[in-house]
Amino acid sequence: MVFTRFVQIGRVAIINYGEDAGKLCVVVNVLSLTRVLVDGPREVTGVSRQQIPIRRLTLTDFVVKVPLGARASTLAKALKKDDIVAKFAASKEGKKMAVQKARAEATDFDRFKLMVARRTKARAVAVALRKQKA
């Protein structure tokens, strides 16, 4: 397999560990082989500028054209111009994260309604199969 997601300036990533887990960020500078400087910016994604190990990031397919060490305002403009947050939400990874978040936030009543809906669907399928066989 050939790598297509390189650690580079402007690469959009998901933080997968720590306080900001599950949030989008952009690589602003590569500090060493194992650490990068990322920024959200806070008003767009909720991530403040910080150093983070590369192993705590999941790189996405999206790249924003920004200069090395771009300010938060420049980064925010670039993210809004390319509509990265909406593109990520429409991607496979974004949809998967939305489903996981919805399941995590579900109440007991929501889980009960889901159980009843699945049971109703299974009964309808069983009745249709019996009609087909007869």
Structure report:
The chain has helices at 42-45, 72-82, 84-90, 92-104, 108-133; strands at residues 11-15, 24-30, 35-39, 50-53, 57-63. By secondary structure, it is α+β, with helices and mostly antiparallel strands. It has a five-stranded antiparallel β-sheet with strand order 4-3-2-1-5, covered by helices on one side.
List the SSEs and their pairings.
Layout: E1 11-15, E2 24-30, E3 35-39, H1 42-45, E4 50-53, E5 57-63, H2 72-82, H3 84-90, H4 92-104, H5 108-133
Antiparallel strand pairs: 1-2, 1-5, 2-3, 3-4
Features:
134 residues, alpha+beta, five-stranded antiparallel β-sheet, 46% helix
Q: What percent of residues adopt helix (DSSP H or I)?
A: 40-55%
| Unreliably modeled segments | none
Named at the architecture level, the CATH assignment of the domain at 11-90 is: Roll
Helix/strand-derived category reads alpha+beta
Query: Strand tally, please?
Result: 5
- How are the strands ordered across the major sheet? 4-3-2-1-5
The rounded distance between the terminal residues' Cα atoms is: 52 Å
Q: Report the sheet with the most strands, covering strand number, pairing sense and barrel closure.
A: 5 strands, antiparallel
SSE string, helix = H, strand = E?
Answer: EEEHEEHHHH
The CATH topology of the domain at 11-90 is given as SH3 type barrels
Assembly state: single chain
Instruction: Calculate Rg over CA atoms.
Output: 21 Å
What count of helical segments does DSSP give? Answer: 5
Percent strand? 15-25%
